[in-house]
Amino acid sequence: MKLLAGKVAIVTGASRGIGEGIALKFAEQGANIAFTYVSNSSAEKAKALEEKINALGTRCRSYQSNAADFSQCETLVNDVLKEFNAVDICVNNAGISKDNLLLRMSVEQWDEVMQVNLNSVFNMTKQVIRPMMKAKRGSIINMSSIIGLMGNAGQGSYAASKAGIIGFTKSVAKELGSRNIRCNAIAPGFIETDMTGYLKEGEQADKYRAGIPLGKFGTAEDVANVALFLASDMSSYVTGQVINADGGLYM
Ligand code: NAP
Fold first, then answer.
1. Residue nearest to atom 27 of ligand 1 (CA)
2. 75-94 per-position pLDDT tens digit
3. DSSP label at 195?
4. What does the alpha-carbon distance between residue 158 and residue 165 come to, in Å, rounded to a whole number?
5. Tell me, what's the pLDDT at 113?
6. Fewest C-beta in 10 Å: which of 14, 33, 125, 237?
7. Cα–Cα dist 247/8, whole Å
8. Interhelix angle for 17-28 vs 220-231, to 10°?
9. Which of 195, 209, 226, 243 to mutate to test ligand 1, by most ligand atoms within 8 A of the CB atom?
């Protein structure tokens, strides 16, 4: 029996990286997938993923939708409900980093990171809890980061946005637990995606790797496996938690 048979999952930011890994993993486990991307340049990649997932035998549709924009999230969730009739799982994965030392960080850089990383989680959660409350079940998974737990020089805005996600996650878990809606966060460490493209081989990569007990960077699939646990009934008594997927880097 597949772990997510017949469920409907929204995954934001799944044209590549961790989101793509989650969309694929969920589809392999029987979920129908609605996923988003934002850039015109990702449209072709999104279509290719849509076709790949449809070929697995579950339904998939991609949507170009800016998670930082409240009204676009409202339209997205209405469209998904029309197309799929339900939202059982929402993975708030879309995110960016605009790293800069505080002395050099502009207000615009700060605001952009907050809007894409933190406001997006509010925007989407606000929309999906209505159908979830009606269905009397739901799993919301928010993509935080170990940087939100430990901080990092040059990543003040990113760290603040990812720490904010954790406070929000725990509050939603408390607010909606009685409605059988669970809300958890994942805190990945160094995962090999476009976002960490600077971590190609070299001295800096070796230094980071040396600090990881498991001795390697993670993959999108490593994070997707944690998301699968949180999305499925395997975690039916788990809410308000932050699960690190970081090879032991932060403990
Ligand atoms: P990535 O490879 O850069 O992919 C980012 C994804 O988010 C893309 O699909 C992108 O769409 C989408 N996106 C960006 N802004 C968006 C917006 N405003 N609305 C909708 N979609 C948007 O990043 P990743 O490494 O997979 O990271 C995914 C999540 O994990 C992020 O929240 C990130 O902070 C978190 N994380 C990553 C790491 C890591 O080491 N990689 C570690 C900890 C946490 P387009 O293709 O259209 O741009």
1. 18
2. 999 999 999 999 999 999 99
3. G
4. 11
5. 98
6. 237
7. 30
8. 50
9. 195
181 Cα–ligand 1 center, Å: 25
CA distance 26 to 204: 34
Confidence at residue 108, expressed as pLDDT on a 0 to 100 scale = 97
Residues 6+ positions from 70 with CB-CB distance below 8 Å: 119, 123, 126
**Between helices 120-135 and 156-176, what is the axis angle to 10°?**
20
Asked if residue 201 has pLDDT above 90, the reply is: no
CB of 93 closer than 6 A to ligand 1? yes
> Which of 37, 124, 147, 209, when mutated, tests ligand 1's pocket best, judged by the most ligand atoms within 8 Å of its CB?
37
Indicate the range of 2-11, 141-150, 205-214 predicted with least confidence. Answer: 205-214
- C-alpha–C-alpha distance, residues 146 and 159, integer Å: 8
**CB contact set of 165 (below 8 Å; sequence gap of 6+):** 92, 117, 118, 121, 142, 143, 144, 148, 185
First-residue to last-residue Cα distance in the chain: 34
Cα 120–16–156 angle (5° rounding)? 45
Q: Domains of the chain (ranges plus CATH)?
A: 8-245 (3.40.50.720)
* pTM for the full predicted model: 0.98
**Distance (Å, rounded) from C-alpha 131 to C-alpha 171?**
19
